[in-house]
């Protein structure tokens, strides 16, 4: 579904990704783990075309999107939950969701809104609250809900567990599992390696802009190198 | 704390002396061909000293003064009331607006000619401020060169009428569209800029347009400006004493009433009123449409907005273009009202005043902006008696205002969009 082939990405003169190849099949959850500054966010943003890859190819649903504009990519069935949630804090929960379905028709919006409220009953309760006044966990739910509003085939999540309590993290991971059941492909970036790999069908380990390892989630969890570096020994 | 305050106050007083004494304390007198420096009189020096003392005292007791200023809203009887429900508030607002418009329709027939003329100016500023409010208040793009689009509108009408004899009603849409086109074209290079950088570049654009108008003497008459801009007509009826254009009739003859210069002033006022209402309604509509929400989303979080597939280019350009469009509107009316325009009407101060109106009114709030436009235009007129001090009074009023209500007269209360459901 999503293929990255030998992708290099630069920030000015600095190369942040040194030839990364990743593949995500339809219907799976793929987790990408790595230390701070490894280039995880850069990799996801490269998929979204902001910044664009300087060489290599990004292919989504069989289409080369390497040189596409971000706005076009984001309208072609892919959605991202950006790092740090980034909800529109002055807008209400409902308005945030509507922004997510910006390019959909009213009936479609209504349907996906109901669906999001089913996944996150908490959001329904807070429908008319300003997003900026909600707790971190609620905002993360909203960010995920907003991404789902465009009815994507694939959702990309950048550290959804960042700064959340264990209970909320568990909830969020459950939801991510549910998304797979609904047929949405998930590409997940996490610091929380244990849970991310546990849930994932396959996983990649990114180190300073290069893929070090890739394997099934189970195998990576059992891998001594991964255990040492990312699972606290 | 007290010692610190004392030191600070002394410092401020000395600065006051250092700045004002050389400016006020010396006079340049010409004596034949040479210029000599003369000390000022005792009263001026006393005044400067007094000013320093006032600054000293104010700075010394600043905390308590500012503290009590901030208490002011508590005196305001409306401050503690509960916020109204949205539907109720909207209904109240629209009733109020309707009443205001009806009042504004009747009022010119009772008021003096000078007052109606001033009110027309207020309406022009309302149009300008509502337009700038889209750019600054809603889309969050700090535009310091807004007056350029106002100039484009005004000059479009002036030039079209001078060279092609085009009437007001034809020039109005052309001026607005041309201003919008300028907004679009000027918008492109500044798309990637934000905040301070955007402000500086737009400031530059505003000045470029003005300087161009000033220097293209053969076309625009340069600093001499363009005169003889015609008044608007009402279905081919002119408001002058004598008909200027062939095929037109005159208003007072058609209706068999005596000629009065007031007819024209009132007519212009009514046109400005209608256009201002159209501006307000159109922008209100836009705010609720997807494009309005896109402006807000982009202002709140550019990255998030982009991640949802919004195109930064399209959203920013639409804000620039629509804002410029209404400035073009206002410019055409202005040109017609004045009958004469020159680049001097479109200096940076004009941009600053429009921006001040938007900020004073409360960014994004239409009601606030309308109130602020009225206050900012009328206040200097009321203070006219104080002649040379009027800008000083105006400035002081603004400073007090921002201390008292930093969020503006009527901070924006967003209209929450809810999805209607069939139950
Ligand atoms: N806008 C930018 N300009 C320049 N360098 C950047 C920019 N964004 C990221 N980088 C650099 O690129 C490298 C990878 O950053 P990235 O944000 O992708 O890391 P990450 O794996 O997401 O880290 P974290 O887990 O902390 O989020 C870092 O060295 C970072 O300093
Ligand atoms: Mg990151």
TrEMBL record, chain A:
<dbReference type="InterPro" id="IPR027417">
    <property type="entry name" value="P-loop_NTPase"/>
</dbReference>
<protein>
    <recommendedName>
        <fullName>High-affinity branched-chain amino acid transport ATP-binding protein</fullName>
    </recommendedName>
</protein>
<dbReference type="GO" id="GO:0015807">
    <property type="term" value="P:L-amino acid transport"/>
</dbReference>
<dbReference type="Pfam" id="PF00005">
    <property type="entry name" value="ABC_tran"/>
</dbReference>
<dbReference type="InterPro" id="IPR003593">
    <property type="entry name" value="AAA+_ATPase"/>
</dbReference>
<dbReference type="GO" id="GO:0015658">
    <property type="term" value="F:branched-chain amino acid transmembrane transporter activity"/>
</dbReference>
<dbReference type="InterPro" id="IPR030660">
    <property type="entry name" value="ABC_branched_ATPase_LivF/BraG"/>
</dbReference>
<dbReference type="InterPro" id="IPR003439">
    <property type="entry name" value="ABC_transporter-like_ATP-bd"/>
</dbReference>
<keyword id="KW-0029">Amino-acid transport</keyword>
<dbReference type="GO" id="GO:0016887">
    <property type="term" value="F:ATP hydrolysis activity"/>
</dbReference>
<feature type="domain" description="ABC transporter">
    <location>
        <begin position="2"/>
        <end position="233"/>
    </location>
</feature>
<dbReference type="GO" id="GO:0015695">
    <property type="term" value="P:organic cation transport"/>
</dbReference>
<keyword id="KW-0067">ATP-binding</keyword>
<dbReference type="GO" id="GO:0005524">
    <property type="term" value="F:ATP binding"/>
</dbReference>
<dbReference type="GO" id="GO:0015804">
    <property type="term" value="P:neutral amino acid transport"/>
</dbReference>
<comment type="similarity">
    <text>Belongs to the ABC transporter superfamily.</text>
</comment>
<dbReference type="InterPro" id="IPR017871">
    <property type="entry name" value="ABC_transporter-like_CS"/>
</dbReference>
<keyword id="KW-0813">Transport</keyword>
<keyword id="KW-0547">Nucleotide-binding</keyword>
<dbReference type="GO" id="GO:0003333">
    <property type="term" value="P:amino acid transmembrane transport"/>
</dbReference>
<dbReference type="InterPro" id="IPR052156">
    <property type="entry name" value="BCAA_Transport_ATP-bd_LivF"/>
</dbReference>
From TrEMBL, chain B:
<keyword id="KW-0472">Membrane</keyword>
<dbReference type="InterPro" id="IPR001851">
    <property type="entry name" value="ABC_transp_permease"/>
</dbReference>
<feature type="transmembrane region" description="Helical">
    <location>
        <begin position="147"/>
        <end position="164"/>
    </location>
</feature>
<keyword id="KW-0812">Transmembrane</keyword>
<feature type="transmembrane region" description="Helical">
    <location>
        <begin position="90"/>
        <end position="110"/>
    </location>
</feature>
<keyword id="KW-1003">Cell membrane</keyword>
<feature type="transmembrane region" description="Helical">
    <location>
        <begin position="314"/>
        <end position="334"/>
    </location>
</feature>
<protein>
    <submittedName>
        <fullName>High-affinity branched-chain amino acid ABC transporter permease LivM</fullName>
    </submittedName>
</protein>
<feature type="transmembrane region" description="Helical">
    <location>
        <begin position="35"/>
        <end position="61"/>
    </location>
</feature>
<dbReference type="InterPro" id="IPR043428">
    <property type="entry name" value="LivM-like"/>
</dbReference>
<feature type="transmembrane region" description="Helical">
    <location>
        <begin position="346"/>
        <end position="379"/>
    </location>
</feature>
<dbReference type="GO" id="GO:0015658">
    <property type="term" value="F:branched-chain amino acid transmembrane transporter activity"/>
</dbReference>
<feature type="transmembrane region" description="Helical">
    <location>
        <begin position="391"/>
        <end position="407"/>
    </location>
</feature>
<dbReference type="GO" id="GO:0005886">
    <property type="term" value="C:plasma membrane"/>
</dbReference>
<feature type="transmembrane region" description="Helical">
    <location>
        <begin position="122"/>
        <end position="142"/>
    </location>
</feature>
<feature type="transmembrane region" description="Helical">
    <location>
        <begin position="170"/>
        <end position="190"/>
    </location>
</feature>
<feature type="transmembrane region" description="Helical">
    <location>
        <begin position="197"/>
        <end position="213"/>
    </location>
</feature>
<feature type="transmembrane region" description="Helical">
    <location>
        <begin position="265"/>
        <end position="283"/>
    </location>
</feature>
<keyword id="KW-1133">Transmembrane helix</keyword>
<dbReference type="InterPro" id="IPR021807">
    <property type="entry name" value="LivHM_N"/>
</dbReference>
<feature type="domain" description="High-affinity branched-chain amino acid transport system permease LivHM N-terminal">
    <location>
        <begin position="5"/>
        <end position="107"/>
    </location>
</feature>
<dbReference type="Pfam" id="PF02653">
    <property type="entry name" value="BPD_transp_2"/>
</dbReference>
């Amino acid at each position: 579904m999503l293929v990255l082939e030998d992708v290099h990405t630069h920030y000015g003169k600095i190369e942040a990704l040194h030839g990364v190849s990743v593949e995500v099949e339809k219907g799976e959850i793929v987790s990408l783990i790595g230390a701070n500054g490894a280039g995880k966010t850069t990799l996801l943003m490269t998929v979204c075309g902001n910044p664009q890859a300087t060489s290599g190819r990004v292919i989504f649903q069989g289409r080369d999107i390497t040189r596409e504009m971000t706005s076009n990519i984001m309208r072609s069935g892919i959605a991202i939950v950006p790092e740090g949630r980034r909800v529109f804090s002055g807008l209400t929960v409902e308005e945030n969701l509507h922004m997510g379905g910006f390019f959909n028709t009213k009936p479609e919006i209504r349907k996906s809104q109901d669906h999001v409220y089913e996944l996150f009953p908490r959001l329904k309760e807070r429908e008319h609250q300003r997003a900026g006044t909600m707790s971190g966990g609620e905002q993360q739910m909203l960010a995920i809900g907003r991404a789902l509003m465009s009815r994507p085939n694939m959702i990309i999540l950048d550290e959804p567990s960042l700064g959340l309590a264990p209970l909320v993290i568990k909830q969020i991971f459950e939801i991510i599992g549910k998304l797979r059941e609904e047929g949405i492909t998930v590409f997940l970036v996490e610091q929380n390696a244990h849970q991310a790999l546990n849930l994932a069908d396959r996983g990649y380990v990114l180190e300073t802009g290069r893929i070090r390892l890739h394997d099934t989630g189970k195998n990576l969890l059992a891998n001594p190198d991964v255990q040492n570096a990312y699972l606290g020994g | 704390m007290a010692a610190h305050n004392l030191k600070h106050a002394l410092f401020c007083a000395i600065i006051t002396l250092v700045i004002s004494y050389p400016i006020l304390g010396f006079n340049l007198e010409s004596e034949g061909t040479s210029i000599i420096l003369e000390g000022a009189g005792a009263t001026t020096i006393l005044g400067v000293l007094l000013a320093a003392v006032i600054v000293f005292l104010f700075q010394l007791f600043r905390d308590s003064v500012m503290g009590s200023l901030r208490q002011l809203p508590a005196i305001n009887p409306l401050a503690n009331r509960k916020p109204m429900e949205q539907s109720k508030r909207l209904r109240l607002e629209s009733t109020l607006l309707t009443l205001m418009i009806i009042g504004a329709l009747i009022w010119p027939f009772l008021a003096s000619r000078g007052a109606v003329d001033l009110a027309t100016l207020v309406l022009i500023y309302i149009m300008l401020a509502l337009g700038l409010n889209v750019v600054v208040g809603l889309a969050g793009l700090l535009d310091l060169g807004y007056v350029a689009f106002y100039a484009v509108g005004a000059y479009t009408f002036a030039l079209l009428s001078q060279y092609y004899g085009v009437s007001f009603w034809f020039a109005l849409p052309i001026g607005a569209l041309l201003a919008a086109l300028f907004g679009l074209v000027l918008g492109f290079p500044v798309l990637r800029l934000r905040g301070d950088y955007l402000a500086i570049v737009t400031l530059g654009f505003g000045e470029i347009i003005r300087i161009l108008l000033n220097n293209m003497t053969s076309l625009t008459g340069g600093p001499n400006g363009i005169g003889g801009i015609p008044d608007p007509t009402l279905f081919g009826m002119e408001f002058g004493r004598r008909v200027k254009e062939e095929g037109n009739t005159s208003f007072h003859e058609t209706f068999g009433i005596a000629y009065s210069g007031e007819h024209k002033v009132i007519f212009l006022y009514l046109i400005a009123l209608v256009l201002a209402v159209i501006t307000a309604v159109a922008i209100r509509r836009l705010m609720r449409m997807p494009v309005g929400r896109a402006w807000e989303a982009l202002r709140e979080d550019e990255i998030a907005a982009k991640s949802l597939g919004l195109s930064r280019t399209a959203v920013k350009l639409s804000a620039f273009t629509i804002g410029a469009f209404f400035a073009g509107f206002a410019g055409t009316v202005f040109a017609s009202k004045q009958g004469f325009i020159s680049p001097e009407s479109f200096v940076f101060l004009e941009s600053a005043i429009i921006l001040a109106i938007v900020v004073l009114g409360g960014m994004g709030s239409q009601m606030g902006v309308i109130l602020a436009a009225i206050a900012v235009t009328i206040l200097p007129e009321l203070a006219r008696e104080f002649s040379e001090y009027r800008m000083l009074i105006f400035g002081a009023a603004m400073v007090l205002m921002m201390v008292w209500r930093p969020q503006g007269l009527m901070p924006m209360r967003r209209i929450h969009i809810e999805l209607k459901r069939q139950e």
